[in-house]
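Before relying on records like the one below, remember that each one covers exactly one chain. Contacts with other chains, cofactors or solvent are not represented anywhere in the record.
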Amino acid sequence: MSEVKVLEGYRITLPEVVRRKLRIRKGDVLKYEVRGRELILRAEHLPVSPTMEMLGLAAGFDITPEQAVLEEVEEKIARTAKVSRR
């Protein structure tokens, strides 16, 4: 499990990998729920276009579909290389 530090004013910073994966942008509203000692944050928003959603993109991100595909290919290559080294 990863962790974040609570800063002055009880603020936390979501890691970039989380923001990108969940397509969270500055100004977005997150829903939250407390379950026992767990804090669950939920990003709920609608994609601008079904095509962009299929590519894992949402409104407001400065990335083209081509860049998204290239990132996916690079991640796949890195995962394949890691598995083949075992």
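Helices lie at 16-22, 50-54, 65-84.
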